[in-house]
Amino acid sequence: MSISIGKRAKYFRENMGMTQTEAASRAGMSQATWSRIEGGKTPTAGDVLGLSWALGVPFDTMRGKSAVRERLQFAARSNTEKTSAGDADKLENVKEELTFLLEFAAGLQEAGYLASAR
């Protein structure tokens, strides 16, 4: 399970202190379209580009494609420990939240809002 583009858009928008109307205007779409995307409607590639532009987030980060996600997925596949079903669900939730936060930080860094940790 991955975090939807709509959830990413809402998270970035709220952290920037923008309303849906402001963000939609910057993206060149209606507030109703923005609201539907945040509500779970699958956006077109053009919509995702508009979201990225409006929020100052790289296109791949908005789509959930990043080096951070790939590294986490590799680490998860490398872990051979057995877990119970309940623990596995909890671990998956933590992994998704961590991935989202790391992608958010990477997006901020790419946009010049955070200094590199290197």
What would you note in describing this structure?
- The protein has a single domain, classed as 434 Repressor (Amino-terminal Domain), CATH 1.10.260.40.
- The radius of gyration is 16 Å and the shape is globular.
- The chain starts with a helix and ends in an 8-residue tail after the last helix.
- Helices cover 69% and strands 0% of the residues.
- It is mostly helical and 118 residues long.
Annotation keywords:
globular; 7 helices; mainly alpha; 118 residues
CATH homologous superfamily name? lambda repressor-like DNA-binding domains
- Count up the helices: 7
- In what range is the share of β-strand residues? under 5%
Overall radius of gyration: 16 Å
**Mean pLDDT across every amino acid position:** 79
| Helix-strand category | mainly alpha
Q: Total number of β-strand segments?
A: 0
Largest sheet: none
Secondary-structure element sequence? HHHHHHH
